[in-house]
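FYI - complex with magnesium ion, inputs then prediction.
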Amino acid sequence: MPGVQFNSPIKYNPLMHIELDQAIQLLQDDLVIAIPTETVYGLAALLSSESAIGSIFTLKNRPAKNPLIVHIADHSQAEPLMRTKPPFFDKLSDRYWPGPLTLVVPASDQVPSIVRAGLPTVGLRVPNHPLTRALLRDAGPLVAPSANISGRPSSTCPNHVENDFGENFPVLSGGSCDKGLESTILVFNNGKWELGRLGAIPREELESFLGYSLNTSSSEKPLCPGQHFQHYSPKAKLILSKAPFSEDVVLGFERREYPNAKRVFVIGPLGDPEAIARNLYHVLRQIDLEGIKEVHVDFDFDQEGVLRTVAERLEKAAHPYASS
Ligand code: TXA
Ligand code: MG
């Protein structure tokens, strides 16, 4: 893995890796499997299988008030799931699907209430991973939250899924995720698109595409219920810091000096924000695997583009119970 100085060989247990046809069979048997996407791995169930959807909440220990994104193969699978189509939906989806953009729109009655956590809306996205798109074309729409225990860092490779759900958990194995950060979520609200969650597509890029600045959630009134809950946190305590580091364990960047640091977890070079995004959850998970209790994060960087999302994830990871 580029720019990461620790040694963490990824060992795959061949037993847990399933092929496309087994994936379809397990889903049709009302079971849950893990699937690859370009952002993070998901825990998937058929939209039509309420029992498997219930199991997703149990497996993840996910609050029932947190709705699930519905993954679809293409536009044609979106139509029956929407009650009405908001303005600019086609332009956004033509430009960004398949890709890391989730669009929250009014839901039709084909979306079970458990998926929407009782809301009148549904989040839709077409993931950009060939295996999962083939699966979606054959099996139909799949609900899928990130494949991690609720509150913990997301999974960006099969090994992470195994760490959270056990080595016999069935994973459709599609390698390491390209983006390493969850999709950006736009919510159609009060007649315009608003930013429900920062994600792999930078905010600036969407604002220039839409031609207006995006309102974001307030902590009192989040656009995505998920923003209420703990997120992305390792067990280790993270301390965000712009000051020089001394005897600490540091999470920092390639080509920066951390004199006297006891240990440095290098997340990547600041000149390559995509590499940093890809490594983020891997490094957070590695810190826990090594049993480290406290890490000082070098928070002295320009928080623009993808690095704005990285910074937001680190803030949430450091302050697990803040609600903004
Ligand atoms: O990249 C991703 O989006 C990944 C991959 C697997 O596709 N999925 C993911 O799902 O991050 P999850 O469940 O970890 O996060 C979904 C977020 C939550 O914050 C949830 O509240 C929000 O989407 N969400 C889902 N449906 C919604 C709705 N109808 N209205 C508002 N927010 C919604
Ligand atoms: Mg998640």
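Confidence is low (pLDDT under 50) at residues 1-12. Residues 15 and 56 are 21 Å apart (CA to CA).
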